[in-house]
Design goal:
This protein has helices at residues 3-11, 16-19, 22-34, 40-44, 78-84, and strands at residues 53-56, 73-76. The longest helix has 13 residues, at 22-34. The protein has five helices and two strands, in the order ααααββα. The protein has one domain. The chain has 102 residues and is mainly alpha-helical.
């Protein structure tokens, strides 16, 4: 997959085509194996957590030429990946709340 194709996916708002591509899936697996399926941020802090995400250090929207570069990938757990992207966890209210106490 070339840079122009990746850029086209991003500009059309269909970046999931990239993330479902054979090239990405293979490279993602290589990155996970390289990092022993461990979150690298947790590992740097002396903790262990399984890596569920493969993060682009330099974002695909900014650097589509590095989208398939193994040196631009970092394996992270979901919590650390959300932290890197400054996403906050949404606190949900329970679906059912019964005021009555037995």
């Amino acid at each position: 997959m070339d840079t122009a194709t990746i850029r086209k996916y991003f500009e059309s708002g269909d970046l999931m085509k990239f993330y479902k591509s054979r090239e990405w899936m293979k490279l993602r697996l290589v990155a996970l194996r390289r990092d022993n399926y461990e979150c690298q941020m947790c590992k740097d802090e002396g903790r262990y957590h399984k890596a569920e995400n493969v993060h682009h250090v330099k974002e695909v929207k900014d650097r589509p030429d590095l989208a398939l570069d193994i040196d631009n990938l970092l394996c992270l757990c979901i919590k650390c990946h959300n932290l890197v992207h400054k996403r906050e966890r949404i606190k949900r209210e329970p679906k059912f709340w019964i005021e009555e106490k037995w």
